[in-house]
Amino acid sequence: MDRFLLKWKPVESVTYDEILQLVRQRTQTLKNKYTPDIKTLLKRELRMNLSTDDCDARGFQYFQDFTRIVEENELQGLIGLSDPSSPDLKDRMKKRYRLLVENLHPALMQGQIQRMIEFERRNRRTDDVALFDLILATALFRSVQVQCCDGQDKRWLASGIQAANGQASQIDGG
Prior knowledge:
Blueprint: H1 2-5, H2 16-27, H3 38-45, H4 55-72, H5 76-79, H6 89-102, H7 107-119, H8 128-149, H9 155-171
Helix pairs in contact: 4-8, 8-9
């Protein structure tokens, strides 16, 4: 492999780090230089599993599925976290945010997340971890609302609101 990728350098003088860097570059570029229709791909393959009762597990699985789809389709260069020191990181993160939020379900939660980010928590557009925490807090709140509306004890709603607000304020550093 060294001979084919490092044509400009004698094989004997190639270091492990150079090979590793080239391998990373190759695996994080698009297949055959073709940019797929990412929105359609994610709309088809990325789903939040609403049958999972545990909000945390549902959120983790959603983000894991997103990461798996990005890696399987070699989209790291466009919407991946491949190089945190890259000058285009902020743009990639905004694209990731947009795609993650556009594919959230149910639609009511998606709208709520979009409004919160647009008007209250703008930093979620460029911070995956903060976006994840916001989605979990919102999902927990929605879960408690559903339980309450299904005839459960009204205290569930109050505790859910407190938990969601506490988690959101912890996220904001408050």
